[in-house]
Amino acid sequence: MHSHLDVAGHPRPQLVREPDWRDLCGTWQFAHDDADQGRRARWMAPETTAPWTRAITVPYPPESPASGIHDTDQHPVLWYRRTLDLRAPAPGRRLLLHFGAVDHRADVWLDGHLAGRHEGGHTGFTCDLTDLVTAGGPHVLVVRAEDRPDPAQPRGKQDWRAEPHVVWYHRTSGIWQPVWLEEVPEQHLTALHWESDIAHARVRCRTRLDRWPDQPLDLTVRLRLGDRLLAEQRVRLEGPENETDIAVPALRHGQDLDDLLWSPEHPHLVDATLELTDAEDGALVDRVHSYLGLRDIGWDDGVFLLNHKPCFLRFALQQGYWPASHLAAPADALREEAELAKSIGLNGLRLHQKIEDPRFLYWADRLGLMLWGEMPSAYAFGTPTVERVTAEWTAAVLRDVSHPSLVAWVPVNESWSVPHPAEVPAQRHFMDALYHLTKALDPSRPAVSNDGWEISAADIWGVHDYTQDPRDLRERYGASVRTGAFGERWPGARRLLLDGVRHTGQPVVLSEFGGATLVPEESAPWFGYDTVASPEDFAARLAALVSAAEDSGLAGYCYTQFTDTLQETNGLFDADRRPKIERETLRAILTGRARS
Fold first, then answer.
1. Residue 431: CA atoms inside 13 Å, Cβ hemisphere, count?
2. Would you identify the CATH topology of the domain 297-591?
3. What is the rounded average pLDDT for all residues in the chain?
4. What global pTM score does this model have?
């Protein structure tokens, strides 16, 4: 039987073929190309050896210590090379090369022949190598990555300046998520999306084939919870894109729902097997394993709802940055990050300015940790920004839409990418368009067009307020939130609402607050919203602010931040994931037990 533990290390845990995949992470040859001469000099050719004098550990970016390069200077063009022992795929099979993420533009060659291109540093892409591998033996794989300090390029917290400043950090350039090979049938499933409907006791399954079917095909879907078969359904596929509703009779039993539904307290996951068969003779064409969580997200009268019940959000801001590996992380660190959040009583994290590795989303699903997904920002508005953000955000939503842990989408943070939405109509149109695009791709989750301030179209209002006085929080977000009368506030010296926006019952979340820093080392550069002198003072400040947020009319909070991130030293944990105060004290504060 398919096991969740079997997919924990798989780079695409919700669409797994076993054992037909091969991890290509590890040692590659590497070269900087500051003069951008590699294409002219044909560095992609197998016989070219001159530039390949260094080794890098993939998938760690060359700026990071874990890569073995550890060069944080700006190098806009990077080259990678690896010799692979490949055999030609058997008849009726294809060989696919997958990249989890390459920042920002990538060109891929096999034996000097172009295999694929991609733009967008936060989402994956696939190259079909089948026609390039006609014989077994050694083959030379070469990747060129281009990552320039372009403010119109979605970059999140990666600094466009030479050195980190304020809240921007060292870059994560080139390959930074897993690279892997997969052998697949000639006709195969390329994507699948899950959506549960608890009230109507059903699951919707959307599938995509690599092309129009060559012959009539049937799809059989089996859903299991442990040894229990929840549903089995067979449908005839009508084309490359298909959608079917699967009845789950067990969901009709209202008293047994806690044993079926996904929640932070009970993160039940349902195993799914999908089999593609020839409709005429029943021959197996393709088989994949997946999983889903049965849960509903809603919002009503200022309250966030999980499985039709009120759910107060206790989040922290998580930037997914490690001192040794920057935005990349080994699989163990991803699991440990989710476990760490759960250990201190948080029920969620706001993924900030990063499209996180799918393996982290798996652990959030598995352990019961809610997430907000957020688009990494560009910093200059214009046509290139519109094109790039739209394309990459679409890819991100479609990649992650089936994860039960993801409960909200944030395409824009603090008007980054759109610095003047109140004054420039095109910027507000773009912000609103991203909200509506998100809802078109996924109407099941709330979306926040602009988190922090200058709110326009939004199902949740996310407000950023770094006051250090808990009395201010109680005054600002108490009765006024419950009556919708607080819309004139200007947090961060920016207006809260754009013209024409009215509160119509959207939940209000204090989606950034706190941010206090323990007195830093004198010699280290640091950033925080205030300082406290001792761990005892830190605990008192945290308890007072969290208590004020809980006493308000808010639907939840997100504390800034989960861990220190380079010079931004305002975490609950330091950069090495050591707590600033005793972990049990953190848990008592964040769960409200410190007040009882």
1. 28
2. TIM Barrel (3.20.20)
3. 94
4. 0.95
